[in-house]
Amino acid sequence: MQETGRIFLGSSRDPQDAIKKGEYLDLKLANRHGLVTGATGTGKTVTLQILAEGFSEAGVPVFCADIKGDLSGISMRGEGKDFLVERAEKIGLDPYYHDFYPVVFWDIFGEKGHPIRTTISEMGPLLLSRLMNLSDAQEGVLNIAFKIADEEGLLLLDLKDLQAMLAHLAENADDISKLYGNVAKASVGAIQRSLLVLEQQGAESFFGEPALKIADLMRTDRDGRGIVNMLAADKLMMNPRLYATFLLWLLSELFEELPEIGDPEKPKLVFFFDEAHLLFDDAPKILVDRVEQVVKLIRSKGVGVYFVTQNPLDVPDGVLAQLGNRVQHALRAYTPREQKAVKTAAETFRPNPEFDAYEAITQLGVGEALVSTLGEKGVPSMVERTLIRPPSARLGPLNDAERDAIIAKSPVAGQYDQAIDPESAYEMLVGRAEAELRQEEEQRRLETETEKASREGESTRRAEAAEGRRTRTGFQLPDFGLGDGGRDDTKEVEEVDEAAPRRGSAPRRRRSSGYQRQTLTETVMKQVGRTVASTVTRAILRGVLGGFKRGR
């Protein structure tokens, strides 16, 4: 039930158990955030549902996680069950009408809603380190990977992109370490193993394209009612760290993308963070500081954040102090820690002299809560013991057929259902490696061809030299220093093949073919030489051939 400018939460009671007054949440102050706490089975889910109904009626889009499936009934018209009608009469809710609200179902795994994705780059190294529970050294290496990817224009969209980037880091670790600090291959290997675990847990479907557009979470229907964006989280809760990291990423995206608008008449979006303790369990200080900063600043962007958890101690003090609107269901106080939690919860309320908040928290029934909201000038109202109103929509889950029908009629049907794989770091790095491989193969081919040509040239030269030796007569007359007096049958061959001299012999000294002026002495000496040579030659030939006449 929603009145002008405010949401009806229920009716408070006086000490005599009589209805006192209605309790409302002022829409102008709804972006000051809130807290819904209480033990299991005390009515937190119903409170979350009536808040979502009220914001939707006011035209405010909502994002919430459906942990057990119970919230999905908000998309179906409610029924006049006896206990609901009785509660409506008891708190003076007249008329008590039934209605249904526009819902878009989302699911990281794409099974019970439209797939919801983000990219590795959008998630960032801080949240990824939290998701994979990395050490400080490993987180440092992951930051270096993001830095290099940014410098080299490598898009990190999905897990295989990050795997390829880490492999690139390991391969060039020595060079990268000189610029960015030590990149230990052991750290790279640890991150790669963590990515493998994520992939086996189904996170592979969460990273990729098309990534979620924040504008698709801020829709209204044709009647002006805010769309309730519901994340199916029953399977996601099997990996609590992924669940918490995803919601924190979404909150950070809202903070980064939405413009500053101050304090609007009503929020632009209300974000319910169910099982909020998962966000802070074992979280490093830097992450807690990040959450505190986002919660502090995001209200000026028109976003109200409502944490839903069992115990107020689950939320750090710095965050708790910023949650102005509070609904506290019953808590058990049997152990010292539980008693401390009850005391902490009671101390966060503005006291009411009519009752003791500490005792009331342990005595509250199902569907009953202590309520304090921000009033005029942002001052918290005195805490009131309140009966929460019954929901207008169905109280309980949808069946599969009903869910499928709503998904089919969704305003974002077909936009996110099919994953796409554009060119990114993986393809670019693989392309580089293939190009280098082709270049190496081409270089080896050229070297092989050059070596082959060299061997063939050497074989040809040796064959020609052998042919030259084969055609020689093998007989040569001595020159006796007479110039042309001796004759070499292989002279012409040797002049052609000067590059291949006879093995084991000294190179010949070629005779000068130029004309030289001879002196008288040189002429006489040459003539005498010819006469002697002629006589000797004839003597040799007689001995060899026996062909001359005697007495000649």
UniProtKB/TrEMBL annotation:
InterPro entries: HerA_C, P-loop_NTPase, T4SS_component. Residues 439-470 have a biased composition (Basic and acidic residues). Transmembrane segments: none annotated. Residues 439-516 are annotated as: Disordered. Residues 15-470, 505-549 form the Helicase HerA-like C-terminal domain. This is Helicase HerA-like C-terminal domain-containing protein. It comes from marine sediment metagenome.
